[in-house]
Design brief:
By secondary structure, chain A is of the alpha/beta class. Chain A contains eleven helices and 24 strands. Classes of the chains: A alpha/beta, B mainly alpha.
């Protein structure tokens, strides 16, 4: 039995298998770059299946890229692109132009990073498909759901783990809302689901009343700080047999997986020479040394040095033998000259029972420069006002970390990455 | 002058003063906002943010515009 890929929406009804990618594999040019736009989900799936056993490198354009961004990529780097015509059961390889020769086999994932400029992160197949190595035998032949952007590191982990598990992977249409995700998850009786905490919270909020959520074999959270409240809500709501939270970065690869149901990870993971993935704290910042790391950025290619430590930019604090992610270096806000980590304020807000979800950010003000603001989604059937929220926060936060401006909204937006959309 | 923006500014100032636990003060078109009310600069910043959300207008988008009175602030939001 081989893995099946169900492309929901406009794709052909029958699921795809690796067999359909064999013809494509023979057409992919070796030793050079082939581009595919993840919005074209049939082409994307078949290209991944075909390319893993060829000598080409795939440039995986995220589905949220515009056609113009994709064309720029084609013009600059790709020798060919793979496209799927609507209604057809196969894909075509179109020549694009001259591309540099000598690309090593693998896949390039594009991240927008904090600067907004897309960086191409170059992975070998073995590092891109690392999740296959960790895939537990108990997940074989299960039905999986691709909640992440397909052309992201996290999306590829789900793709390759489901493939390795000879599972059935359901790939939803791009840009659908959460009621539709809920419908597809119920319809396909999804058993394995991996998503960001923001994504899980929105899914639970959108779940139709009176409809029982599927009992999951595996629920996984990652891509953002995983807080205890969200872990507990996912456990209560979906009653997964296994609840895991993972930490990975596109550059360093998968580094931490924790399945004890508690936020954070054990401090004994740090500086443990026996672990395949090394973890180290330096001035509160997490460093990772991993065999699953990228080869480099395509804009600045270089040989990966063996045993190199990657600075992740993620801030970690240790309390009572447990390490907790507390924020990112590059997200720190400057409020009247004082540093504020929005993640710390969000964590404090989420501990207020009336807060279903929240986002903290800096708002520019013509009067005082910048002030701290928060968007709040009230928990179901509850209500709270700005003044009461500020009172509650005073119990745990210093005055400059208390948002001054609140907006009460019906839902937050998630970025294409599945992470909360920061302003 | 259109009285609607004035009413809106007065309401918004009272809202913020109330949340700050300050007693309400009488306000009219001529009231100098920072001198004649207990509103501090943070309070005024909040007033301006809320006016932007209520009206959908951001008169300060192109840079700071000087104003002193309720009437001058309201004029910035007049259509």
């Amino acid at each position: 039995m081989q893995a099946e890929y169900v492309i929901e929406g406009d794709g052909p009804a029958a699921p795809f298998t690796r067999d359909q990618s064999r013809e494509l594999a023979s057409q992919l040019p070796a030793g050079t770059d082939v581009a595919v736009h993840a919005r074209d989900r049939v082409a994307f799936v078949l290209t991944l299946l075909a390319a893993e056993h060829t000598q080409c490198r795939v440039l995986a354009a995220p589905s949220y890229w515009t056609d113009e961004q994709f064309s720029q990529l084609l013009g600059r780097r790709a020798a060919a692109r793979v496209v799927h015509q609507d209604g057809s059961a196969s894909v075509e390889v179109e020549a694009c132009g001259t591309a540099p020769d000598g690309s090593p086999p693998g896949i390039v994932i594009f991240t927008s990073g904090s600067t907004g400029r897309a960086k191409g992160v170059d992975h070998s197949w073995s590092s891109a498909a690392a999740s296959g190595e960790f895939m537990s035998g108990r997940l074989r032949h299960k039905t999986w759901y691709l909640a992440y952007e397909p052309a992201s590191y996290a999306g590829l982990q789900v793709f390759f783990a489901a493939s390795q598990a000879a599972g059935r992977l359901v790939i939803p249409p791009c840009g659908i809302g959460f009621p539709e995700h809920a419908r597809l998850i119920a319809k396909h009786r999804i058993e394995v689901l991996s998503a960001t905490p923001s994504w899980w919270r929105l899914l639970m909020a959108a779940w139709p009343e009176g409809s029982a959520p599927p009992r999951l074999a595996q629920a996984t959270l990652g891509g953002e700080i995983v807080d205890q409240g969200t872990l507990d809500r996912v456990r209560t709501f979906f009653q997964p047999q296994h609840l895991t939270h993972v930490y990975a970065t596109t550059e360093a690869g998968t580094a931490i997986a924790v399945s004890d149901g508690q936020a954070g990870f054990p401090a004994r993971f740090l500086d443990d020479g026996q672990r395949r993935v090394g973890l180290r704290l330096c001035e509160g910042v997490l460093y990772v040394r991993s065999p699953f790391r990228m080869r480099g950025y395509i804009q600045a290619p270089r040989e990966a040095r063996e045993g190199e430590w990657i600075r992740t930019g993620d801030l970690v604090e240790v309390h009572d033998g447990r390490c907790f992610f507390v924020g990112r270096e590059d997200l720190q806000l400057n409020i009247g000259g004082l540093k504020v980590r929005p993640e710390e304020v969000e964590a404090a807000l989420r501990r207020v029972p009336e807060v279903g979800d929240c986002l903290v950010y800096a708002r520019s003000s013509p009067i005082i420069g910048v002030l701290l603001a928060a968007d709040i989604v009230c928990a179901a059937d509850t209500h709270i006002d700005a003044v009461s929220l500020q009172e509650r926060l005073k119990e745990t936060l210093l005055p400059h970390k208390i948002p001054r401006h609140f907006r009460f909204v019906t839902e937050l937006t998630v970025a294409p990455s599945g992470k909360a959309q920061r302003h | 002058m259109d009285t609607q923006p004035v009413t809106l500014v007065v309401e918004t100032i009272h809202e913020v003063l109330d949340e700050q636990g300050t007693a309400p003060v009488p306000l009219d078109v001529e009231t100098n906002i920072l001198h004649d009310t207990p509103l501090d600069s943070m309070g005024l910043a909040l007033v301006v943010l809320r006016l932007e959300e209520k009206t959908g207008k951001d008169p300060f988008g192109g840079g700071f515009i000087n104003f002193h009175t309720v009437g001058e602030l309201a004029a910035l939001y007049a259509s």
